[in-house]
Amino acid sequence: MLKPSARLAVLPLVFLIGVGLSGLYPVPAVADSGSIVRYARVKTVGDLYVLNASINLVLTDAARNALLSGVPLVFELEMAIVRPRKWWPDEQVADMDQKFRLSYHALSRQFLVQHLNTGIQETYSRLVDALERIGELKDFPLIDATLLDPGRHYILELRVRLDIERLPFPLMVQGYLSRDWRIDSGWYRIPIQ
User: Fold this and answer.
1) For the chain, how big is the Rg over CA atoms in Å?
2) For 113-136, how does the pLDDT look when each residue is reduced to its tens digit (9 = 90+)?
3) Residue 47 per-residue DSSP state
4) At what angle do helices 169-177 and 4-22 cross, to 10 degrees?
């Protein structure tokens, strides 16, 4: 049997081995949180392609409890414009990320949504309204139409996910090892007309 001091020295090694072995059995990217892209439409406004989308963002119990305990959650809205090719991997023409920080202030009982790309902040009295704000895009500018070849076919890929790396370290470790922190809508693909 190991002495207590020897056992303490072995614990970090056991943790690292456990984390390393967890890579052999990957956790699915999408949890049963129910987050999905309801719809997404791309249209042209002048010489610009714009996106209108609605994403149903649902928190897992672990994420909801952390949020109500004062842990801010950062959601990343990822978008990519790709050109499909038959014999080669799809060509990525453009990509963009939008990040939103969701936090809860217990004293005022308000939810704060901060758009990290622009710095704009909005407050909501209900969590469902704050989540709806993160998941709603109206006339969001995607790309100048002159940058796309008119005779080619393009696809917009869209998803929203919880940015696990923005969690405090103890929760980040749980986020990588537990499905309870996997909030990911999965990729939604729509043609750009």
Assistant:
1) 20
2) 999 999 999 999 999 999 999 999
3) T
4) 50
